[in-house]
């Protein structure tokens, strides 16, 4: 028992340091005063101010990138859910030979490097002439890219829908819409929300497709961040952009954790 407790404490400390150190350094760098650089002979920044935040948040380029990212992410998430539902239903509710192999095959696109997928999708969309609107081209590409996550989550959610609840609702004379509301939706809701948030977060952080397919007209937070890192690199500005990118996603991941905790198969559907 003592060994288990010691290992748990050690793991907790390692995890805390692994998260706290990068966040702490990013926060400190984002607060460095422009007139007083943070040199190696100082443990902490010699002067702290919010000037970097004011300058970056007032930058029209960042404002456009924020707008693009936070319009793109929910659009891609909704498109992904729409494309996912038929496949997830088939994998979760319809027994057929080779179903487990089909499930495994749906995850194979995740092993392909992001830049390879981005180049392929860009060439394909150019070939079919679907690049007139950079926003919709990137959103559609994100929806295709993140399909495996949504299919995996929602196929499990469809499995958790209890057939006896569906039958009970039907026997009591419930309409198809009422059956969906009382028998299907309670089991599917955690999975739908979890899939939406995962795709939302992945879309916010995705760089390769947004850069290759969207450049130079369409900018997102990751493309702006990588541009700052690759050209006239200013570490405090990069730290501000990193926090703007990461902090909302941390909040969303906490929400996702609560959704996954609530997805208890025994409690996920009530009687019709």
TrEMBL record:
It holds the Pfam family BPD_transp_1. One of its GO terms (cellular component) is plasma membrane. Keywords: Cell inner membrane, Cell membrane, Membrane, Transmembrane, Transmembrane helix, Transport. The chain crosses the membrane at residues 70-92, 104-129, 135-154, 182-201, 207-226, 238-256. The keyword Cell membrane applies. InterPro entries: MetI-like (IPR000515), MetI-like_sf (IPR035906). Residues 66-256 form the ABC transmembrane type-1 domain. The keyword Nucleus does not apply. It is found in: Cell inner membrane; Cell membrane. It is a multi-pass membrane protein. GO terms for biological process: transmembrane transport. CDD domains: TM_PBP2. Belongs to the binding-protein-dependent transport system permease family. This is Putative spermidine/putrescine transport system permease protein.
């Amino acid at each position: 028992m003592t060994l288990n407790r010691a290992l748990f404490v050690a793991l907790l400390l390692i995890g805390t340091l692994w998260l706290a150190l990068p966040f702490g350094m990013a926060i400190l760098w984002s607060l460095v005063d422009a007139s007083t650089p943070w040199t190696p002979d100082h443990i902490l920044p010699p002067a702290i101010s919010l000037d970097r935040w004011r300058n970056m948040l007032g930058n029209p380029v960042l404002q456009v990138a924020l707008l693009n990212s936070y319009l793109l992410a929910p659009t891609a998430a909704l498109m992904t859910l729409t494309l996912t539902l038929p496949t997830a239903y088939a994998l979760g509710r319809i027994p057929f030979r080779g179903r487990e192999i089909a499930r495994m095959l749906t995850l194979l696109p995740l092993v392909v490097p992001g830049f390879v997928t981005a180049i392929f999708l860009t060439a394909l969309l150019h070939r079919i002439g679907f690049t007139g609107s950079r926003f919709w081209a990137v959103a559609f590409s994100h929806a295709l890219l993140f399909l495996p996550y949504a299919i995996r989550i929602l196929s499990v959610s469809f499995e958790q829908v209890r057939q006896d609840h569906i039958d009970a609702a039907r026997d009591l004379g419930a309409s198809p819409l009422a059956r969906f509301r009382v028998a299907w939706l309670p089991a599917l809701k955690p999975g739908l929300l979890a899939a939406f948030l995962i795709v939302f977060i992945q879309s916010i952080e995705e760089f390769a497709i947004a850069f290759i397919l969207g450049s130079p007209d369409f900018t997102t937070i990751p493309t702006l961040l990588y541009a700052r890192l690759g050209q006239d690199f200013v570490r405090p500005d990069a730290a501000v952009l990193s926090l703007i990118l990461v902090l909302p996603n941390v909040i969303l991941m906490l929400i996702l954790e609560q959704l996954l905790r609530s997805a208890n198969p025994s409690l996920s559907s009530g009687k019709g």
